[in-house]
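Wait, can you check?
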Amino acid sequence: MAVISQEDIKKIRSKADIVEVIKEYIPLSPQGKNYFGICPFHEDHSPSMSVSKEKQLYKCFSCGASGNVFTFLQNYLNISFIEAVEMLASKVGESISVTTEYKKKREFDNEYQIMKLASLFYQNNLHTKEGEEARRYLLERNIDEKAIEDFGIGLSLNDGLLTPLLEKKKIDLSLASSLGLLNFDKKYYDLFRSRIMFPIHNLDGDVVGFTGRIYHGEKNTSKYMNTKETVIFKKGEILYNYHRAKNEIRLLKQVILVEGNMDALRMYENGFKNTVALMGTAMTSKQVNILKHLRVPIVLMFDNDEAGALATLTNGKMLREAQCDVSVVRLTGEKDPDEYILKHGVNAMASNIKQAGSFIDFLYLYYKDNKNLNDSKELAKYINNILDSLNDEDDITKDIILQRLVKDYNLSLDVLKSRLEDTNETVVSIPVEEKKKVKKSRLVNCIEHILYYMMNSKEYIDMYRSSLGVFKNSVYRSIANEIIYYGERNQVSLADFLIYAEESPLKNEIFEIINNVNESILDKRVLEEYIYTVKELMWEEEKKELKAKQKETMDINMKEKIGSQIVELTKKIQEIKVERSGLK
């Protein structure tokens, strides 16, 4: 993983104006000191995202999305923090020093390292004398050395030598087994044998699984064997070839979605490097979100059979419901994109993509299949299917389709419009992966506001240390300590603290606080009020716990001791209420 020094990152951020960067992606209008625009991180219908030139931060007051210029690029383009830094460095003409060390241990780092070792082992096998037959098979299938190298294709031999290699490397064999590399029957042994191995990567490019294909023409065995679902491999949460394709997708502002790994490989190696695959036909809501966050038009190109047509229908509907721009290519003559390119060539494929039809045009033809439109019942069913599919379309598309139905079937435009209006009234929109907001307690809300203040100024850090000192909650206490540590070594600003937070194990919790707090103007007196409230509520909680403890104990001396503590807490609570009243 590439790592860039914090000094370089701060220099890049200081050279980039967040307003100008965000303007490249969404329109912004000046309103007072800040700029406002339609928030791209939720279905926003009025400008609710504020961008501050002074603070170099953005904040949506509707969905809570917030951060600095790097955060915006990460979330808008669905890229990693390092990629956002490198992209911005290029924009501002800043050269950066990149190392390849890990700054912190990632979750599942051991698992990723084991899978990487296995992948390198399989790749090495393919280039041995024992791999000659497999290499010949790949070449016969028009998979050349470049494709083998690009996609890290390897070979599992029949000798079962992965297990002893892992043992020699002192790797926990039970962990390797849980990752789908080994089986156990009295002892551990290699799961994959005599198969060409296609590694599967997650969105960041880590190997998380394999597809193993037979090449001897064996009978009574499955042609393909896939890694089972593991802690790092969730088939429905990744898209095959995404890590290679994402830069090209951003450049071309288009993504091509195919069914299988071989389709993606063939497309990629023939110049269509913006291609990703589902590894099957069923799409999950997580995959919809991945595609939605790319914010580019999607071309569906599934197999040329009934299953492929059905997949185009169901997946296209999911994407349209998520407000994605969807078009469709239905290849003819060959089974899938892999075979089509081999038979008809790159130019024919490029022409198909260029002339991709709209999703609604696909539906117009799809619903006609196997129907006798001379039969009034079947015609009515067909018309109703089309009208039901128009809910996610814009007004112009609706009008075009309605006019086409009128012309093709001699129908009344008024009747169709009336039916469409009835449909729209009954449609319930279900957001994809919408997070439910959990109502937080008054104490938690105040603590998060205090932490937010601390991220913005050393003065607020000092107020916390002198007036409060510590939070009982271990997570909030750790975040406060992180801020204090940062403040002792740096000038404090939220835009720069977010750079530091990228390497914190509490990154998610820190960003959640920033998203939760809706305060654009920071006031010292307001912070004092939060501190007083936290003190009072923490002491009230402590008092409640002491009363419960006093009730449970049978020891008279202990009861008296706890009683004294309760009296002291009661005094402190009364004193702080008096102090607090002086603020108002």
The chain has five domains: 3-99, 109-233, 237-363, 372-426, 442-581. DSSP finds 26 helices and 18 strands in the chain. Residues 100-105, 425-435 have pLDDT under 50 and may be disordered.
